[in-house]
Amino acid sequence: MATYTADAGTLMREAHGSETVVTSRYIANGVSISPGDVYQMCRVPNGCTINSIHYYGRSSGTGGIVFDVGYASSALNTLSVFGKATISSTGQNVLLGTAEPVTVSVSDDAAQQYWVITLQPSSGTNTATGTFGLVVRYSRAGTGRPT
Question: 106-142 b/e with 16+ CB inside 10 Å = b?
């Protein structure tokens, strides 16, 4: 079991009106991906509402690895909250929507005041060379949400 962090050099935050868009990406360069690994993709601040999560990815040399898309906070690690995504030799471009919109809620006395959106392999172990990532859209408390 290993924990990986998305490439900080590609993390982009853009404001689109009342919505913030975060794009993160992980570059797998001949890495063994297996259940138990956790890929920390991006942070979403406490009190924000996640409006959508979009997964993209493509890899060579893999027969298909299924990721649970969820979040981690200082108190818990919840998987499959936002659905499942697959990395394979066929490019994936999927809007995940099983639980949106959802409000990030962290106890006021928690050390970290954010959720980390995570990808965790749920099946298959394989060596992958390619890229996968997320585009997360969220609104801050007190701002209008897109309708």
Answer: beeeeeebbbbbbbbbeebebebebbbbbbbbbbeee
